[in-house]
Amino acid sequence: MAWHKKPKTNITKLRILRIFVQLIMFFLLNLGFFSIGATWLVLPINYPKSLYSSSEDAFFLLQRMLTDSIVPLIPLASFFIIGSVFGRLFCAWGCPFGLFQDLIGVLTSRIKKYEPTSETNNSLRQIGEFITGATIIVSTFIGISLSLQNASVVENAFGIFIDQPWAVLSPSVFLFTVIPLLFWWGGIENFFIWEKFVLIDLVFWIRLLIFIFAIILVIYIPKGWCRWFCPAGIIMGQIGKHSILGLGRNISKCTHCGLCEDVCPMGVKILSHKPEKIRSELCTNCLDCMAVCPENALELKFL
Ligand code: SF4
Ligand code: SF4
Ligand code: SF4
């Protein structure tokens, strides 16, 4: 039927547009390159403070403030204000680590993708929730310990986890901070000075393994890291379920063809949600489902 072509064209255009917007966001997030910084700009995305970043990542700021025994009002406000209005919109349209995963998806589009069952999705998501909860508890514990005990005792106890515990394991820190620092050490003119590689330690290899795991995951399961393991995504998912902006499905137009579920990169079971609003913690408002719907039954609206 003729409409089969139209959704395919629509979705290709939308994905190109989204990558374009993500690249502009990446540029804006790195205005530090032009000595323009905005440390007050705290966003619920996965882009830790790196060489030239001009904004703060809410989850990493939250950890830093907790380990410094400061009530993390600013990152919490960022999560709640942005999440309750826009949901996880920044995940699809503004997060550099989301862009990285999208680009891997484009480059490996010929490799067969897998869609896990709902049970697998839920079990793996619980691991992400555990990581998020544990990071917040450990950060709080470090902050309290530092205010009660001798700093050097606490530093010895927590070692490299002392500042931002999740930063040690996060693949986005490895991609945006560790790798650039390694190659930028001493400036671009020192790009090929191999002596710096003596700085590589066991933690580097652990980080590298987690980074490789994230890449393999994303090759076979679209947005695999975003679905299950990203702490910012876990927090935003819980808030975003209740956001004002969201997708609605017009049941008088919908034919239950299932195309929308087939293209959803986050595996959202769109048809099992109430039609007035898709209240899924996974939905990032990427709009792929809207672009592919042959009946124009899905719409983005303020609910
Ligand atoms: S869930 Fe994905 S897109 Fe959202 S902040 Fe985390 S890495 Fe970025
Ligand atoms: S919303 Fe659109 S794509 Fe999804 S099942 Fe209904 S008609 Fe098909
Ligand atoms: S439900 Fe639609 S908007 Fe939400 S993540 Fe899936 S494809 Fe994107």
What this model shows, in words?
The protein has 303 residues and is mainly alpha-helical. It has one domain (2-112, 133-238). The protein is built from 13 helices and four strands. The strands form two sheets. Strands 1-2 form a two-stranded parallel sheet. Helix 2 (58-67) packs antiparallel against helix 3 (73-86) and helix 6 runs antiparallel to helix 7. The site of one iron/sulfur cluster (SF4) has 11 residues, from helix 5, helix 10 and helix 11.
Short characterization:
With 303 residues, the chain is mostly helical. It has one domain (2-112, 133-238).
Task: Give me the secondary-structure topology.
Elements: H1 5-28, E1 42-43, E2 56-57, H2 58-67, H3 73-86, H4 89-93, H5 96-107, H6 118-148, H7 151-158, H8 171-184, H9 202-220, H10 224-228, H11 231-240, E3 245-249, H12 259-263, H13 288-292, E4 298-302
The structure holds iron/sulfur cluster (3 copies).
